[in-house]
Structure formats: structure tokens, C-alpha cells
């Protein structure tokens, strides 16, 4: 038999994981409910003063950096509209990944070249998040001469290049590792002998 029943093995494993998550979740809810909030939310509102730097929540920061990184006009289309289009395109492109990935093997475990590009994409997303949290005129990580806006533009360029160039080309050119004959061979390594 090349499989194991779902219940009770995965049920117990998932219940344990959910219990660990709930411990941390309840810790935040009951003991530190404002821990992940932005400090500007605790300043009393003043209708006559706009805060100098408004940022969204942390999970929107990469998309905010993409929105803000478009500061040039193309074919008469204003920069603000291009930024909004780029931000929405960065979300929509996630929905078309199945058609952009041209590899016959979907798992990165068997695709050594794409695995490196994936981790480069993860780093790029963190850089976009950092750029979204900082003012555009600041220096990126304190490096003189490298502005946050320039690093945001480079990261935005790679964000779209990853999906529109890297995924299709690596899928066509990469030679994946051979797939295992069975699940047990892949997981246990000695399952093929049993």
C-alpha cells in the first residue's frame, strides 16, 4: 500500500498545530492586543495636521511599495494611475501563476534552479515590504546614494520579471530531478525495498 489513512494521523497532527497556534493567538489577544498596531494609531486625531508618513498595515507594504515606486509618466499616462495599475497587476498576476509556470513538474523540490529563484523572490518581497514602510527619500538600509524609491523600483521590476520572464523561461529550460516512483520512496527513501 502506497498511502496511509488521513484519520487519525493527520487529524492529530493538525490538532496539535492548531493548539500551538491558539496558544500564541490567545497570548496576543489577551495580553498584548495592541502589540502589532502602528504607533500613529495612538496619537489623538488632529484635523488640521496630516501625519508626515502614512503607511498601511504590514501585509500591504509590498503592494504599497509597488504603488509608490511608479513615479514616472509613460505615453501620457500619469504616474499615479500607473502606480495604481501596477499595484492591482501585482495582485492579479498571482491568480495567473498556473498558466505562467510552464514546467511539467510543479514541485520546487524537484526543480533545483527554480528553487533559487523562488528564494530570491521571497527576499524581493521582503525588500518591497521594507521599502513600503520607509519614506521614499530615505536611504535604503542607511546606504548613502541608494534611495528607498530606487530600490523599490528595482524590486518592483524583479517582482514582475519573476512571473513574466523567470517562471516561463526556467520552466522551459530547466531539467528537473527525476520524480520518485512512489510516495513511500520519496518520503522514506527505503520504501522502494519494502
Brief digest:
By secondary structure, the chain is mostly helical. Helices cover 54% and strands 0% of the residues. The chain has seven helices and no strands.
List the helices and strands and how they pair.
Elements: H1 9-31, H2 61-69, H3 79-92, H4 97-100, H5 112-133, H6 148-173, H7 183-188
Helix pairs in contact: 2-3, 2-5, 2-6, 5-6
InterPro entries: Cyt_b/b6_C (IPR005798), Cyt_b/b6_C_sf (IPR036150), Cytb/b6-like_sf (IPR027387), Cytochrome_b_C_euk/bac (IPR048260)
Membrane topology: Multi-pass membrane protein
Organism: Thalassospira lucentensis
Describe it for me?
With 194 residues, the protein is mostly helical. The protein has a domain at 54-188: Helix Hairpins (Orthogonal Bundle), CATH 1.10.287. The protein is 54% helix and 0% strand. It has 7 helices and no strands. It has helices spanning 9-31, 61-69, 79-92, 97-100, 112-133, 148-173, 183-188. Helix 2 (61-69) packs across helix 6 (148-173) and helix 5 (112-133) runs antiparallel to helix 6 (148-173). The termini are close together. The model has no long low-confidence stretch (mean pLDDT 89).
Amino acid at each position: 500500500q502506497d498511502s496511509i489513512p488521513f484519520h487519525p494521523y493527520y487529524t492529530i497532527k493538525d490538532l496539535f498545530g492548531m493548539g500551538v497556534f491558539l496558544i500564541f493567538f490567545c497570548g496576543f489577544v489577551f495580553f498584548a492586543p495592541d502589540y502589532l498596531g502602528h504607533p500613529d494609531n495612538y496619537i489623538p486625531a488632529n484635523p488640521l495636521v496630516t501625519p508626515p508618513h502614512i503607511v498601511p498595515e504590514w501585509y500591504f507594504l509590498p503592494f504599497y511599495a509597488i504603488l509608490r515606486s511608479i513615479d514616472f509618466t509613460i505615453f501620457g499616462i500619469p504616474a499615479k494611475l500607473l502606480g495604481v495599475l501596477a499595484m492591482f497587476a501585482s495582485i492579479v498576476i498571482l491568480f495567473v501563476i498556473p498558466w505562467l509556470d510552464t514546467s511539467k513538474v510543479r514541485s520546487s523540490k524537484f526543480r533545483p534552479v527554480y528553487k533559487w529563484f523562488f528564494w530570491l523572490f521571497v527576499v524581493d518581497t521582503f525588500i518591497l515590504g521594507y521599502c513600503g514602510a520607509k519614506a521614499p527619500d530615505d536611504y535604503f538600509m542607511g546606504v548613502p546614494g541608494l534611495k528607498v524609491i530606487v530600490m523599490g523600483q528595482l524590486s518592483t521590476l524583479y517582482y514582475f520579471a519573476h512571473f513574466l520572464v523567470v517562471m516561463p523561461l526556467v520552466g522551459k529550460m530547466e531539467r528537473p530531478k527525476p520524480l520518485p516512483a512512489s510516495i513511500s520512496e520519496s518520503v522514506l527513501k527505503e520504501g522502494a525495498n519494502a
